[in-house]
Amino acid sequence: MQFFAGLKKVAATAVLAVAFAAPSAAEMLDVEKDELKFGFIKLTDMAPLAIAYEKGYFEDEGLFVTLEPQANWKVLLDRVITGELDGAHMLAGQPLAATIGFGTEAHIITPFSMDLNGNGITVSNEVWEMMKPHLPKDPDGKITHPIKAEYLKPVVEKFKAEGKPFNMGMVFPVSTHNYELRYWLASGDIHPGFYSKENISGQILADALLSVTPPPQMPATLEAGTIYGYCVGEPWNQQAVFKGIGVPVITDYEIWKNNPEKVFGITAEFAEKYPNTALALTKALIRAAKWLDENDNANRMEAVEILARSEYVGADAEVIANSMTGTFEYEKGDKRDVPDFNVFYRYFATYPYYSDAVWYLTQMRRWGQIPEAKTDGWYDEVARKVYRPDIYLKAAEMLVEEGHVEKADFPWDTDGYRAPQSAFIDGHTFDGRTPNAYLEQFPIGLKGKEIVTGNQVAGG
Q1: Which PANTHER family match (predicted)?
Q2: How far is C-alpha 383 from the chain's CA centre?
Q3: What is the pLDDT of residue 7?
Q4: What is the 3-class SS of 302-317, one letter each residue?
């Protein structure tokens, strides 16, 4: 991807010209580091980065950015930690897991939440044909959605009776996809397995065996029969439909309505060393998110054409458009309206809520990645250490003053916690202020003082 280094003088002159033309722009931040390299994985929800680059929002802030696709989530995180990347499109769980020392230990923060929703769960044609006869139908003859995991349970039991493991893919141990897939399975009485200090496979006591597959490889792995289903972001569910190798059965919007998905991650050290740069990049990303959602998604087809390029997602525009433009195709030919499948700006999508961080931490605890009980105060403390609405709101305030965004677009009076949410597939209510009480609601999963020892759950 073009680096813009050669254009730096020209761009800087243009920025100065704008500064003199518009009084608000005269307040441009004096960025400490102007040449930046950001990483991403080839998924449609990296869109705010692509748009900030293509629409010149980074340059408006005096930033000259290179965007670079990464091989997988681990490589991406490691390169942010070493400083090879200045920041990256990250799984929401990555900054949290790194900060508490699950896997690679490093203090990563996020000043910006990249989107809501955007994932789906797909099963192979074989599994779908086993599920389909038992699924309820609407009066018009269409299959009733959302499809609950209880309809997958007999299939998993049949595989188990035949001595065959029921393998499923997710993109990373601390990914939204892992937690959403586990949440859906457990809501249908299918145990997705525990982690322990000694065994980080995540398959202890599991009925369905979950393992890591990089997003672009999901369809091929499904087609090869290595896995029977997966949870991934777009366009890799719709790709299975287009290739005729699998059927998406549910979206994460149906598992948890308007769930937070990706974040933009930087090291705490970067934010401390380059505070104006952190503010500037946050400003550019907020503007990009607004562009993606404004005027009832009027810009989405242009976004699709950009994302389809090889330097970004590199999938067919038709496949990307299937979800990015407000629809989602389940079984081939069964395309339904899901206007909020991808949300980048509305519903305060870009605000880094502490309660979002707490939800991910509860799932880490539920499945044993946090092996021992923690107090409610601990969850709050970690959330505040990683999620940085202070940076976000400062950037938003500047954008309001500059006339780029409306004041009503931001939750100025929030304490960082959303109101209790109950739009989950199983009907449970999540209140980020009481994480331990939340965990007590689930029949499957660790709670209280329970720990996983060997292949058993002990304590309570």
Answers
A1: ALIPHATIC SULFONATES-BINDING PROTEIN-RELATED (PTHR30024), BLL4572 PROTEIN (PTHR30024:SF43)
A2: 17
A3: 36
A4: HHHHHHCCCCCCCCCH
- Start-to-end CA distance of the chain, whole Å, equals 53
* H or E element at residue 264: strand 262-267
**Does some domain include residue 309?**
yes
Buried b (16+ CB within 10 A) or exposed e, 30-61: ebeebebbbbbbbbbbbbbbbbbbbbebbbbb
301 token code pair: 């087809």
Question: What is the pLDDT at residue 28?
Answer: 85
Looking at the structure, tell me whether residues 292 and 405 fall in a common domain. yes
Q: Could you tell me if residue 454 is inside a domain?
A: no
Residue 447 covered by a domain: no
- Measure the CA–CA gap between 370 and 382, rounded to whole angstroms: 13
pTM of the model: 0.93
Tell me the residue type at 124. Answer: S
Residue 58: phi, psi to the nearest 5?
Answer: -65, -45
Instruction: Specify whether 404 is located in the same domain as 288.
Output: yes
Indicate whether 141 and 247 sit together in one domain. yes
On whether both 315 and 403 belong to a single domain, the answer is yes
**Residue in the structure block whose two tokens are 């916690």:** 417
pLDDT at res. 267? 98
DSSP secondary structure of 295-359: HHHTTHHHHHHHHTSTTTT-S-HHHHHHHHTSEEE-STT-EEE-TTSEESSGGGTTS--HHHHHH
What pLDDT, on the 0 to 100 scale, is given for residue 4? 36
Cα–Cα distances in angstroms (integers) from residue 433 to residues 93, 117, 144, 174, 454, in the given order: 18, 22, 34, 22, 32
pLDDT of residue 241: 96
What integer pLDDT is reported at residue 103 of this predicted model?
A: 87
272 shares its domain with 233: no
**Can you give the pLDDT at residue 15?**
37
Nearest-10 crossing angle of helices 275-297, 300-307: 120
Domain range for 304: 5-117+261-352+388-409
Report d(CA 193, CA 190) in Å as an integer. 9
State the residue for tokens 């400490």: 32
CB atoms within 10 A of CB 206: 19
| Per-residue pLDDT at 12 | 39
Q: What CA–CA distances, in Å, run from 287 to 101, 209, 334, 403?
A: 33, 41, 34, 11
Specify the pLDDT at position 104.
Answer: 87
Asked if the structure places residue 382 within a domain, the reply is no
Q: Could you tell me the mean pLDDT of each successive run of 10 residues in the chain, 460 residues long?
A: 38 36 58 98 96 98 98 96 98 97 94 97 98 95 96 98 98 96 98 96 98 93 98 95 97 97 98 98 98 97 98 95 93 94 97 98 98 98 98 98 98 97 97 98 97 91
Using DSSP's 3-state secondary structure scheme, residue 69 falls into strand
